[in-house]
Amino acid sequence: MRPGELIGRWPLLRQVREGDAFGLGRAVQSTRTQELRPRTDAAQHVVQSICPYCAVGCGQLVYVRDGKVDQIEGDPDSPISRGRLCPKGAASKNLVTSPSREYKVKYRPPNGTEWEELELGQAMEMIADRVIETRKATWQKQGDSGAPTERTMGIAMLGGATLDNEENYLIKKLAMGLGVVQVENQARI
Amino acid sequence: MGSNMAENHPVGFQWVMEARLKGATVMHVDPRFTRTSAMANLHVPIRAGSDIAFLGGIVNYILENERWLDEYVKHFTNAPVLIDERFQDTEDLDGFFSGFDPDKRIYDTSTWHYAGMPVQETAGERSKGGTKGEQSGHGAQAGHLAHGEPPEEDETLQHPRCVFQLLKKHYRRYTPEVVSQICGCTKEQFLEVAEALCENSGRERTSAIVYSVGWTQHTVGVQYIRTAAIIQLLLGNIGRPGGGIMALRGHASIQGSTDLATLYNVLPGYLPMPHAEKDTDLAAYLDNHAGTTGWWGHFDAYFISQLKSFWGEHATKENDFCFDYLPKIDGDHSTYQSAMDMIDGKVRGFFLFGENPAVGSANSRLQRFALASLDWLVVRDFVEIESASFWKDAPELETGELKTEEIGTEVFFLPAASHVEKDGAFTNTQRLVQWHFKAVEPEGDCRSDLWFVYHLGRKIREKLAESDNPRDRPILDLTWQYATSGPLEEPSADQVLREINGVGPDGSALGTYADLKPDGSTSSGCWIYCGIYGDEENKAARKHPGQEQSWVAPEWAWSWPLNRRILYNRASADSNGKPWSERKKYVWWDGRKQKWVGEDVPDFQEDKPPTFVPPDDAEAEDAIAGDHPFILQADGRGWIFAAAGLMDGPLPTHYEPHESPFENPLYSQRANPTRQLSPRKENPYNPAASNAYPYVFSTYRLTEHHTAGGMSRTVPYLAELQPEFFCEVSPGLAEERGLEHGGWATIITSRTAIEARVLVTERMKPIVVDGRAIHQVGVPYHWGTRGLTKGDSGNDLFPVALDPNVHIQEVKAASCDIRPGRRPRGKALRELVESYPSTLEASA
To answer: Which of A28, A83, B616, B775 ranks highest by number of CB atoms within 10 Å?
Structure first.
């Protein structure tokens, strides 16, 4: 740094020059501080979302850069949360970008000791086959009383409270079509 | 009560703090001193499992001191209604109501009805079938009432058989002294709460009661909430701003998943699943479940519109709108029963959608045995949760009870898309349906559950397309045409929401459930959501800033039904339709405009005057009088006395938890006589009042973690903030058992033993009950064998002991032993557990 520049950065001089007599404003900011930018600044666009943890339903703003989540902040427009998030909500970016997340299908054959790889398409085929086979093998036309039941008691489902409404509706609808009555979620527990 | 709101719903708690700053009194009645207690004006510690005694004491206090809101009670509740003369109370029968069958351990509820008529439960009639635990509808109760009025009433509330007098009799022994004796708080603490609640209720003021799973997770869980409902009805706190009973729920869309019915006993919108023996055809089903009066009077329109959403053009009047396509229930098919049926080889295939029963369900040990008994399992989650990895890391491998090579379960783990990777809506804990928009594409094999369900259904339909088996008609005839987009072929959540909303004969989106028809000309996947897509607008996606609208913020998202923010808000005005007070003005009758007006969408027919008296032949909503706000009930009133709809009594009664170290001081009947027990090898119980298990323990959550940990133990920030499983004990218990702060403790029940770090804290205090000091142990339940922070699972300790109404497990109060040091490893663990007493008897 040239001497002139160094002197020019002298806070006292800057206080006078910038009219910041008490040294409470920009005059006392370091170059580093001046160059700090909000961590959301680099985002290319912002999407309104809702926190995925508890049922308070705080508003979130998802900042996106290059097709990736850059930051997740509270949404000040939400009359529920007024921009606030709790430690979990504030860690949402860490949730969706967590190193623990899985991105590949994993398959464990019966009695297997390790996970194996499986293509998603093939997994879907195999699951569809399992449903069809089990449904056929366990189809129950009548209950113990002899009354018609037209269902399978061989297949059960659990979960939905962390999912979207539309997903829950579609799960229930598919289950009704398949004759699966054991459809349950976290609300039971 | 039963909630640690500051810890678990901190952003919601800002409103409590704001109320306190404005002068509200915040009271916390809870076994532990928590962050919520720290921010309250008053904390009253009570013994876990004693809340009904405390609340019943408040009911008694209100009645003894004449503190009820008389006009509200007389016009808006069923307090004046006379009950069947055969009805007998727990005060008459030492802890039983009339109608108990000691062999089947169920009630014949017919003597609990209104005098002079058979009241029946509308959405889910249970009393006919008699099979235990076949609760089939949350919805409203009703009966066939002529012009919406019960046959016998005493408006002076003096008749010995009127609800008001029965209530007085039922709770008269719940005195401050008895509350103190059962709950372990002082008489003065109790009186301070009761008085503050009464002082802050009435025309000028309202009080709200907030609860969470600290209330629901008991063998009398439903009755906990009922007691609060009685208090709030007596004090006039329902349907009014600042009043109500707020359930704080723990998952983003647990309300939505209940509404849209991923539950075995209900269809979307709280329509009961048809029962094999009773609901033999559409006519029988409608006859059993439709009300004559109140809004359930249009049950047929809601139900038939739903069948049209499921089966479209295939559902015709001639084929009962495909009623026979619906599978039938005939018993308890809840998740705990399914788990036991897995062990017994009946359930062979299992789907998990973002739920982790190997950690999150009671007796998670039993859950792991269940998973290990399956033929196949599909797990959809962000991370490899314990329910996906049990075959290689379940604690039962270490004890030698399971062997990886012998576990025949075929496991498919499919990674799920997160909330920022898909469009869709969550319904929050106050019925607000809020849309979240997709921000980025999911990576790799990650897909939304909408994608998974849609494409799985598509593939199954393709594979069965040639089938002529009648069994396959329901799946092949299902309406399953959803538009997909993008390289992943993602189905449109918006289109699914529009289907849930429903359409009219011209194919345009309906604006209200009042337009649904029983003739097959309309469709609606879920009648209570009808209107969410009115005028072809996704109203869940409305994001008009809160600060730019009224305090009710009606243009932020949408709440069911019809964007009403406070249910039954006609009760915010007095019987004549005038606001109870200027301060508490919300919805009122405008005599000049001849309609209900106010801050919110009125939850009442807009033009029905408060003086309206239904004619004799009136039906459905037209049979509800102008001064009866509870429009889903057949009589339009809030039910202090539940004449139908519950398995375990029309009035809440104090029973001890299933595993309690105490006898019941009020009755010789110790615990809820209808509680659901499942004694079996994997589910033994601690013997009642056993000296081997001298302590009470309870589970709870921490701010930094989420339920069974799948969304928090795996998140680096959160795992770092709350890095280790621990238990909380008082200094007294630490001394009694030689537990060291920061050291290890082993907690033992007849199911298993787990280890945890010890947190000795003054916040845990022994509670003196009936002259005996009882120590309580607190256990957060988030941990499991995987994640960035690992630990034993608190839920391993609990048995499956269920509430008879909703099959929820008792995990907020059980008995245990605790000793210093780490638990034994391997076979020695089982030897330790087996050295303790257990029972397989389903004792009464």
So the answer is: B775
